[in-house]
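Appendix B, Record 12. Input sequence as logged:
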Amino acid sequence: MKLCRDCKFYKKYWGYGGTNAIYDECTCPSIQKEVNLVDGSKRFVFCTFERSSRSSCGPDAKYWEPKEEPETKEQFWSRMFNFG
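Logged structural output:
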């Protein structure tokens, strides 16, 4: 099952009420974001709405991409000192 929290476009909301995932954001560039006509900023796109809408990412996770694995300590030091 493709869960939003495992997608590279997922952004956790840590503010008030953030424990229930309702306010978690989808940052996928393929999803149209409305522009706020007052200040010109792009509006947040919530994962909950995008996954429930068949015209967007939908239940099939059309835009889902896996998160990149975090770099290990060994990879970091190898990259820093060009170890082969």
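The mean pLDDT is 88.
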